Amino acid sequence: MKKMMIIGLTLLTTASFAQKNNTTNAAMSWKAYQSSKNSGNMEMAEKELLEAVNFISKSAAHESTQNDPKTLMYKGKIYCEAAVVGAEAKTEALKALGNKETSKEGLAAFKKSAKNDSKGKYSSDIKDYCAIARGNNYNSAVKMYEAKNYENSMGSFLTSAAYGEAMGLTDTVAIYYGGIAAIKSENYEQALTAFTRTSKLGFELPSSSSYLAEAYTKLDRVADGEKVLSGLLESHPGNKDIMISLINLYLGSGKKMEAEKVLSDAIALDPSNKELHYVVGTIYEGQERYEDAEKSYKKVLEIDPNYSNALLGLGAVYFNKAANLNGKINGLSLGDPNEEVYRTEMTESFKKALPYLEKANELTPNNAEIIGSLRQAYYKTGDMEKAKAMKVLLDGLK
């Protein structure tokens, strides 16, 4: 029995030694690869990198060395390199490794090495490699973004962030810009992941939460978006930027009542915010709650008398009230006594609309919507000369 145990121990030790030898061979192949790459001999470099992959794969898979920090450190370097070089390799076996999965496996190995390396013996090796890869990916991402190659820019920004994580850093800048590139390339799932992280970390909250709401809306996951943004609001109570993102989510999905409630809370926190009052006005106007819309638009103009959108909005409220009255007149029977009452009210509403529409026209000239509304208002109030002038302007815009 004792003899059998000794033999078993010898076999175990021999197997362990063999795996450590694989790690050593991987390290030697790695160094040879670097030398060939630096000298420009990519044919030899590919061969040596593939050898390194084969050696490290064996030791990383064996139970005796799979948790060894040195083995994991080399696996990280070799796999991350294989993912990059493999993308353009001529060697088919190496080309098969040129993908995101290989890169993910390499980055995971770096993290595991750092976790298992209690003495920090290999931490500088990992940080040095990752720092270079991180910088290269970030610079590449910026260039591709400037060239409007948003999909590849997204990948490089997020890869840069992943290398930062392998170094123990959270690169919110790279994650944020990776998210923007994802939005621009219409990769809303990636945008969702990126902006969920930056929003939770409180980074660039006005735009992070706004982009997050946009991603949820585009993916038709409004309920999920509401849950996440409401959770963010609980984590950052009273944060107006998150409120606005939640409002935009509701408005984008037609949930005007829900938007109105959050708007009321936001206005209570920031009563002098003209944008909030304006959005409330548009909601009321859309619901044909013209008196409420009138109050909201007037509040905007108290804050900023030259806010052209609110001027147009208030003019539109009076114009629409007049148009509704005109519809009632058209529906009356001949000789109905209400016609005169409605006609007087209609004319007064058109007259009320005029000063706001005129000022909006001064501030925003050549706007077909404003000019068209002015033309009808002048016509309905009997100012035919100005109505004709508006028609000339309108025809000139066609």
Roughly how many Å is the radius of gyration? 33 Å
How much of the polypeptide forms β-strand, as a percent range?
under 5%
The gross shape turns out to be elongated
Determine the number of helices (DSSP H or I, runs of at least 4 residues). Answer: 19
Mean pLDDT: 91
Mind summarizing the main beta sheet? none
Number of strands: 0
What order do the helices and strands follow? HHHHHHHHHHHHHHHHHHH
Keywords: Repeat, Signal, TPR repeat
TPR repeats: 274-307
Organism: Putridiphycobacter roseus
Pfam families: TPR_16, TPR_19
Description:
By secondary structure, the protein is an all-alpha fold. Among the domains are: 101 residues, no CATH class; 94 residues, Serine Threonine Protein Phosphatase 5, Tetratricopeptide repeat, CATH 1.25.40. It contains 19 helices and no strands. The protein is elongated. The N and C termini lie far apart (101 Å). The N terminus is likely disordered.
